[in-house]
C-alpha cells in the first residue's frame, strides 16, 4: 500500500509522487544524506568531464600542457613564455567554451525544474512562455536592421524578457494569474513572435537569412571570456535564489489551496520563481541561441533518480545538464570537420527520451 501524507486541508498525497513532509523545510536533514552524495557525485563527474573535454579536439593536447597554461594564467606568470598555439587553444578557446556550456546547461535545466514545479506540469520547459520566440525575434531584428537595433545578444535578451512580460500581462486578471491561462498566453505570444521572425526571414538578404537560421539552431561556436563575465553573475544569482526557494517550490507543487494553508502566497512566489527562471533562460539563449530539450529532459531524469524534492532537483538538474551538454558539444565539434549546431544533437537525443517518458506513463509525473 502506498504511504500517504495529509495536508492541513485534509487532502492526502502519495509520498512517492508528491513531496513528503520533510520537503517543506528549508534545509535538508540527515535523512537526505544519500541525495547529497548523489549531488556531489554529479559535481565530480562534471569536473572530470570538463577537464577531459579540454583534451579533445583537432589539436592534440596533453594534460601536462593544460596544467602549465592554466597554472601560468592563475598565478600571474609569464604568459609570453607559453607556446602561443597551446595558449590560444586552451585558454582562449576551449576553457571559456566549456565554462559557457556548463553555465548554459545550469540555466536551462534549473529553469526547467522551476517552471515544471511552479506550473505543476511535467511538460513545461523554459521556452513555454515565449522566451525562445522572443529571443529569435530580437536576434533577427538585430541582424536585419543592425543600424536600428543593438547587437544580436542584447536584442535577444530584451525581446525574450518582453515575450514573457506580455504573456504574464495577458494572463493576469482580477489580481490572479491562472496557470492554464498563463500557458495559453505563452503559446499565443510564441506563435505571434514566430510569425514576426518569419517576416524577418522573408525581408532579409541571403547573408542575413543565413545568420538568422544559424543563430536559431544554437551553438557555442564563439564562446569567449567576455561571455563568461556577462553570463556568470546573473545566472549564478538567479540559480542560487531558485535553489534556496526550492522548499517553497515543493509547497507550490501541492496546489494553491494547500500552499495558502501553509502560509505561502502562491501568486507572489510563483511570480518570483518565473522571473528567476526567465532571466536565466533569456541570458543563456541570448548568448548561444536556442538549445532544445535540455530544460525538459534533465529535471525528469533527476526526479526519477532522487524523487520530487526540488531542493535536490534544481541543483541536480543543473549538474546533469552540464554533463549532458558537454557530451553533446564535444560530439558537435568532433564528429565532422564542420561543426554541427549543438541543438541538432540535443534534439536527436531528446526526442527518444520524451517518447520513453510517454510510454512509461505511471512514472511520467514527477518521478512517481
Q: What does this entry show, briefly?
A:
With 368 residues, the chain is mainly alpha-helical. The protein is built from 14 helices and two strands; from the N terminus they run ββαααααααααααααα. Helix 3 (84-119) packs across helix 13 (310-334), helix 4 (131-144) packs across helix 5 and helix 12 (294-306) crosses helix 13.
Task: Describe it.
- The protein is mostly helical and 368 residues long.
- The protein has one domain (32-363): Orthogonal Bundle (ABC transporter involved in vitamin B12 uptake, BtuC), CATH 1.10.3470.10.
- Helices cover 69% and strands 2% of the residues.
- It has 14 helices and 2 strands; from the N terminus they run ββαααααααααααααα.
- It has helices at residues 33-54, 63-75, 84-119, 131-144, 152-171, 179-203, 206-216, 225-244, 246-252, 256-261, 266-288, 294-306, 310-334, 342-360; strands at residues 4-6, 12-14.
- The protein has a two-stranded antiparallel ribbon with strand order 1-2.
- Helix 3 packs across helix 13 (310-334) and helix 4 (131-144) packs parallel to helix 6 (179-203).
- It starts with a strand and ends in an 8-residue tail after the last helix.
Provide key terms for this protein.
368 residues, mainly alpha, ABC transporter involved in vitamin B12 uptake, BtuC, 14 helices, 69% helix, 2% strand, disordered C terminus
